[in-house]
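Review form for a predicted model. The reviewer records the input and the model, then writes brief findings.
Reviewer: anonymous (R2)
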Amino acid sequence: MEDAVLETLCATAESFYQRGYAFGSTGNISVRAGDRVWITPTGKSLQGLNPGQLACVDLDGNSLNENRPSKEFPFHLAVYTRRADVRAVVHLHTLHSVALSCLEEFDEENPLPPLTPYYFMRVAPLAVLPYFRPGSAGLAEAVGAAAPRHNCMLLRNHGVVCAGSTLSEAVDRTEELEQTARLHFLLRGERTRLLTPEQVEELKKTFG
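Model under review:
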């Protein structure tokens, strides 16, 4: 069972790379299996990974195999220790989401406009976290603090973090966030029909 999960993690990493969601050695993905967390290794591309290259740590951050975990593993653990329902975390530097995170001014309570119902079904509410150095304790603390109320987080000048009860759910949220950010930039300067407050409220009641 666990072998199949790790194969799926590697296939997901490859898919992100091939579709341009990840590049170089950026991005990391993890899955929780009981009290163990499997995560992509530090300094490795998401392309071409196999299960033997994945790092394994316990919920206290102790290494359980010889592979070094991504430097971002502390915030993955921060999510898992605060959310018993979460079984997967995705962190990527997707182009349009990162562009959004670099904008000087936007409404941090509502960082993306209500363009489609799918954003509310899969992403919202989106937390916006201040910039912290990648791999820092401050970043892990901020992600952990936001995790109980948010499945998706936008890290200022950095990237996105999306959690799910399955790896597939975390992937869907990551993709929906990126596509909504892309749509937002495509429509900038255009007269745009947004969902009404009533429609948004209905979505929140139904899917929130």
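Findings: The domain at 2-207 is CATH 3.40.225.10 (L-fuculose-1-phosphate Aldolase).
Further findings: The radius of gyration is 17 Å.
Recommendation: see findings above.
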